[in-house]
Write a structure and sequence with these properties.
Length: about 200
Amino acid sequence: MAGVSAPEFWTDLYTRGGDGWELGRPAPALVEFLEATRLPPGRVAVPGCGRGHDVLHLSRRGYQAVGFDFAPAAIAAARARAKAERLAVEFEQRDIFTLDRDYANTFDGVWEYTCFCAIDPARRAEYVRTMAAILRPGGWFLACFYPIRQRGGGPPFPVARSEVRRRFAGPFRIERAEVPFRSVERRLGQEWMVLFRKTC
Ligand SMILES: C[S@@+](CC[C@H](N)C(=O)[O-])C[C@H]1O[C@@H](n2cnc3c(N)ncnc32)[C@H](O)[C@@H]1O
């Protein structure tokens, strides 16, 4: 059985209906945040975008959004959805840990939702380095971290606020952090929304 760092692991979940994370709509925390806060327009990367609901939402809000996922089933579904809506968004089938090779200092923003908790926790430092590398200096990194709890198997692997603060310090500083009002019911109280700024 492939581990979480291999696309086959995720493809298997997508094809046998093991995709319990699927909301069928954009993340409520993202919708809420963008209603209240105007982040400047520009190119936004969405790592581990799944079927692309958040990418499409960002596009509808005027961002040039690009979704990345290494599971072919996810990218195919996301492209089909974009085509049906006639939205000019890009989806790339790709391992997010390779993004710095082609996208150094490229993006104005990154939206993170349920990718950080899906990767092998041993690769979290690499994840932070990669996200910092693809953002332009001064770029924003908006994340809704889930599941905020101490223990549990995975994926999703649990996320602690203290770990987030420690891992993102250095390349990023926190501008805002709050518990979102809107979550899907089963995730209520387990989400933490953080807006970071790339410091260099
Ligand atoms: C828990 S799902 C969440 C999907 C989406 N963010 C959502 O909220 O519906 C995690 C996604 O990350 C993708 N993923 C995990 N590790 C990845 C990697 N190293 N590179 C690209 N995609 C990855 C998986 O294929 C899967 O689609």
